[in-house]
Amino acid sequence: MAGILAWFWNERFWLPHNVTWADLKNTDEATFPQAEDLYLACPLAFCIFMIRLVFERFIARPCALGLKIQANGPQKAQPNAILEKVFTAITKHPDEKRLEGLSKQLDWDVRTIQRWFRQRRNQEKPSTLARFCESMWRFTFYLYIFTYGVRFLKKTTWLWNTRECWYNYPYQPLTVDIHYYYILELSFYLSLLFSQFTDIRRKDFLIMFLHHLATITLITFSYVNNMARVGTLVMCLHDAADVLMEVAKMANYAKCQRLCNLLFVMFAMVFVSSRLGVYPVWILNTTLFESWEIVGPYPSWWVFNLLLILLQFLHSFWSYLIVKIACRAISRGKVGKWNPLHVSKDDRSDIESSSDEDNGPPPAPVQKHYNSTTNGTNKAHGTNGYLSAGAPCPDEH
Predict the structure, then answer these.
(1) Is the bond preceding 170 in cis, omega lying within 30 degrees of 0?
(2) CB–CB of 82/105 below 8 Å?
(3) How far apart are CA 68 and CA 77, in angstroms?
(4) Is 202 in contact with 350 (CB distance < 8 Å)?
(5) Where in this protein does the record put region Disordered (predicted)?
(6) Greatest CA separation found in the chain?
(7) Is 307 exposed, middle or buried (0-12, 13-18, 19+ CB in 10 A)?
(8) Which residue(s) pair with 393 in the sheet?
(9) What is the SS3 assignment for 135-153?
(10) 127: which DSSP letter?
């Protein structure tokens, strides 16, 4: 184990030439980032998760009910032992052949069985109230941490001159503000990583899981080798768009159409300008070129910049999705009544719906059997979906 640790913490990988871990030990004169500092993030992540439960129960939920958001979830499917067994043990999306077999077995028409499966899938989805509470929690945290980051960074020298991120590197003392900023961000994303298994399950679960892993890796990586100054710039830049994304989702769930449209436009402008404009010109420029000139490259420098470049590719992909949704809505001539957070099934969907679905229970069984080629498989349209930038999208960072 000692050999593995020695290999992992190889100074020639993590630190510039002629710098050792002993040089970065804490002294009475200066404090530097230590890897063991990050252990504090684990219990703090659990505390954040517990705070979230309390917040959603006693703050977000009353706010949602005050906005007339219904607590009930999607309509439940009519109890049926045969269809329930197929749903739980075989498939949640039966093909035409299986639909025809079930139609003959139950003496139900194919259209009714399709509707039953759609309602049964929706039954496992959370209510709009749960979505609102989740978004309000994220909005509250992002607003707080973004406000904190702005207030802290405006007093620093490296916000106005990014070359200050590299002067006297890595002998840059760790301040209390930077330590608090890093530990809180890391704790929050650790809580998101594990709460994904209890949160609203969406189609991009794996993508968001990997996104949270990448964010945690970047935060940890930049802290350990004391690239904390540029790390604070990256975190603050990404939190800006996440605030608008979550509040736009809240407006969507509250059915405030015009406010939702306005907030989405603001979110799109901030996201695209910050991720495709400010990020490469401001962040990548200093990590790639200014650091090369002042410090010079070394192994962990290459890894850090590779992760930041991969993040830029994710920015480009998510920006493409945002612009695609906007163009699709404009081309359909629905700008006036457009809800930009109602994303199509191809992009992201939380609840399935169909033009043939009503508010009542499935029709009673009938003797007549419909031909599957006449009915076909109904198309589904996503409702109450939202973008993943952070958001990370950018999720999610």
Answers:
(1) yes
(2) yes
(3) 25
(4) yes
(5) 346-397
(6) 87
(7) middle
(8) 389
(9) HHHHHHHHHHHHHHHHHHH
(10) P
Give CATH superfamily name and number for 81-124. Homeodomain-like (1.10.10.60)
∠ CA 109-112-114, rounded to 5°: 110
* CA–CA gap between residue 232 and residue 17 (Å, rounded): 24
CA–CA gap between residue 201 and residue 187 (Å, rounded) = 21
As given in the structure block, the two tokens for residue 36 are: 């063991």
Query: In degrees, to the nearest 5, what angle opens at C-alpha 157 toward C-alphas 151 and 163?
Result: 130
Of the given ranges (140-144, 177-181, 326-330, 335-339), which has the lowest mean pLDDT? 335-339
Quick one: tokens of 335?
A: 């700008």
* Confidence band, pLDDT 50/70/90 cuts, at residue 248: very high
| Sequence ranges of the domains in the chain | 32-66+129-344, 81-124
Higher-pLDDT residue of 43, 76: 43
Residue partners of 198: CB distance under 8 A and separation at least 6: none
Taking residues 332-355, what's their average pLDDT? 42
pLDDT at 348: 37
Dump pLDDT digits (tens) for 351-366: 344 334 444 444 444 4
Q: Tokens 């080629």 appear where?
A: 373
- Residue 200 is predicted with a pLDDT of 63
Residue whose tokens read 């609203």: 200
Can you read off the two tokens belonging to residue 270? 């901030």
Strand, helix or coil for residue 389: strand
